[in-house]
Amino acid sequence: MSGQENRNASKPPANRWRLWVDGCGGFLVLTGDRWTVGGAMVADKNDIAVGADLPRTAGTILRNDDDYFWENNEANTANAKPAMIQSGTALPIPGSARLNLHKSSPLSGSAVLTLDPPHRFADHIDAVILADQTILVGPTPECNVRGTMLGGNIVMTRRGNRWYGKVIGTQDLKECPIGERVEIGNVALTWETVTQ
Amino acid sequence: MTALLGKLKREKPTKKSSVASGFFDKDAGDCGLEVTQAYEPSNYSKSMSFTYPPGSTPLPRYTIRRGIGIGGFGEVYFAISAAGKEVALKRIQRNLEVELRGVSHCLNLKHPNLVALFDICHDESDQAWVVMEYVAGKNLRQVLDELPNGLNESEARRWFSAIAKGVHHLHGAGLVHRDLKPGNVFDDLGIVKVGDYGLSKFISSSHRGGHTESVGTFHYMAPEIGRGEYGREIDIYALGIMLFELLTGNVPFDGESCHEIIVKHMTAKPDLSQIGEPYRSVIAKSLEKDPAKRFATVTEMTNALSMNVDGHAATHAATHPIVAKLAETSPMEVHPLPEAQSPKPPLSAHKDCSPEPFARAVRASFSDLERWWRSLDRSPGAKAFLFLTGFFVLFINTHWLLPLLTVIGIVYVPYYVVRQMVLHVSQQPSYAKAQASANQLAALHGPSPRPMTKAQWREHMRNDLRAKHTLHRAAELNTSWITATAITMGLALCAGVIGLRSGPVDSFAIAPYGAMALVVLVASLTILGFGKLWERDEGESLPRRIVLAGVGAGVGIVAYSAYQFLMLPLDVGLGREIDSTTLPQALYWDNEIPKASAMMVHFALLFSALRWWKAVDPLRRNRLSIWSVVVAVAAEWAVHQVLPIPQPAGILTAGAIAIAIQMSAPWVNPRLWSKSKTEPAPSRNPIVPTPYPANESVANRGGVA
């Protein structure tokens, strides 16, 4: 077993949710600090499954503080070092898909993964959110989930396995029950848990 | 009108008001139908309320994941089928028949550049749902918002070629899209697709136009749409607009209001100077006002751009007869608008309505002078010295400056008057069509959500006045003139009865009243005439005062001639309250009897001093304002202090003119506004604040005596 596989096997399972934002899109929300990326057509699921000609597991995205790194699964030699991923750049994954990482705000460690057309993520989502402490949702560019139709900026935060949200600038923290549509400010969204 | 403006705002293709894009903005671009029409301006600030939450299964095989948007016909959801197929579900809530009919006609269209419609299903409560292809990419509106200067040529050609292919296929199937715009074109993961053709309508050479729904978006709306008779040429027109926008990032006809945009569509020529060939000539031909002059087919248009759209085209010969038959057997679809509400096609190209060049130059010079004066870095004392020096130089040169200005005035004022008359009359049809189109479209948009404010009401009524047909305007003017004549006669009679109550009643005694009546009549008729020309807008005060000065000079000549003809004394009542200096020799004889020039200047001052057009404005506050009469009399008295004329004839004349023009000019009672606030508007034309059709003459509303 390679060192990479060892690391994958020993990592704590990432918590997974799906976030549906009306008038905006669907997102896979992942917590934790490392996530495997691979093709969607494989039996053993990766954290991030892409409907593209990717290997079974193409590599791993690591988060250290607020920085993100890519560790290629092929380069599993002892001296291989994870490469830092700059915001707005594509991950060096093999195949035809182009997977981009965006870190929208310096105030949030969360990042977002998007795919260039014509590829899509598995499970009907539009993007993957690598969630840190908070997720910003709103129409402005600094938001992790940006939808210009949205009526205002909200911030989502996690406590245990529950998500809470509030309109930025207010104190009223609202719980988001899993499976129920919640309106926070002018944003309507629904959280779902995802079992792997 | 609110609905119109709302639609305009949400579709205006500028970065400020349009649907900007983000990484995850699938909003307008998520699905094919109607999504781009989903977002009222209010939706920007409040969340969209969808009926079905995620996880719902209103249709057994489809699970809703999220709402996409709320369109003109209903809600649109992103859903996943039991087998994992991503679809957009459109719940038809409004205009059910129209929408279902449109969609059912398009169900079997197959083309890679068209958003596919899969099926129409009904849920347990018999609610209709349209199942359609889910488009995950951005729409062209979003792409253009990100690139405000337009796309590069190759990318623009990629988009346009695909759009043209899709539209060509629609036309080949006998359909007209009718709402082509960037918001309805999607990049579906690399494949450009045209959506939102639920509004499409079957059409053939024997069956054109007519529909109860509004068509298109203002920026992409062909000028003939307002008429209700249109064919696939409207799509050619919209394609021309979109090609322009793809290359430049802007639409060729933009404006601050729907009226302005519509007027530009109907009258203005697009500025194609920044576009190279062959695009320039293709766009120019596509945007011809006359549909017959445009490209007859999409193929013709794309051939001119060296594109080929025939690759996926439907077989015209196979589909057209069937379509025509369907259309003919569907009388429900045909709702031609009444003749009165249908604006005629544009007859003439855009006329120059820019300010008069000389006046513009003078104004610009004064403006430059003012800027120079303000920026002059001198102490207040030095500035005062400069000002006094300039004034002194002007004063010592009055001996040649005044005659020169007089000559210029004699030449310029008549020229200005004629120019104003000619230009205003020539502009009339365009405004009329614009208003009629706007009213017609507004009438199709459902009730106005809230009553108009008085300012809005006035603006609407002003637009209504602007839209009046020339014939109606002439008829009203004729009525006003007849009324003014009668009122003048009546006033003269009253004055005569009062003035001649004692003493002999002979021709010499009656003559002054006749002269006054003549002057009042000429002045009233002239003011009414210009008032009729100027009722279209509030207008600028200075040009109107200049014109009225010319009118006053003419009235002065008439007055002087009448006095001379009737051998009336001109030295009666010349006394003034103010002990002024010697009267100007150019205007008065040595014995202080006024010359013709004195009468001309006197009336010119009187006419230019007051805003007489306000007294004949149909939207004035009262039919007869005593205050206006008092002001006219006071103004005459003031002018008399400077340049005396026989009195009290002058004062009586001024007062009589004020009365006659107010009593004879059309008047829209402002109480109609308060009435329109409290009463529900008629459903046929809900935004019109009065219970009268938009094109009905104001004179027919009881405004003219």
UniProtKB/TrEMBL annotation, chain A:
Its recorded name reads: Uncharacterized protein
Instruction: Name the source organism.
Output: Novipirellula herctigrandis
Q: Which domain of life is it from?
A: Bacteria
From TrEMBL, chain B:
Spell out the PROSITE patterns in the cross-references. PROTEIN_KINASE_ATP, PROTEIN_KINASE_DOM
Q: Which domain of life is it from?
A: Bacteria
Gene Ontology MF: a single term: protein serine/threonine kinase activity
Q: List where the protein spans the membrane.
A: 385-418, 481-501, 513-534, 546-566, 593-612
Q: Name one Pfam family in it.
A: Pkinase
Where ATP binds, per the record, is at 90
> What EC numbers are recorded for this enzyme?
2.7.11.1
Matches recorded under InterPro entries: Kinase-like_dom_sf, Prot_kinase_dom, Protein_kinase_ATP_BS
Q: Which UniProt keywords apply?
A: ATP-binding, Kinase, Membrane, Nucleotide-binding, Transferase, Transmembrane, Transmembrane helix
- List each copy of the Protein kinase domain by range: 62-323
Region (Disordered) location: 674-705
Which EC class is this protein assigned? transferase
Protein name (database record): Serine/threonine-protein kinase PrkC
This chain is encoded by the gene named prkC_5
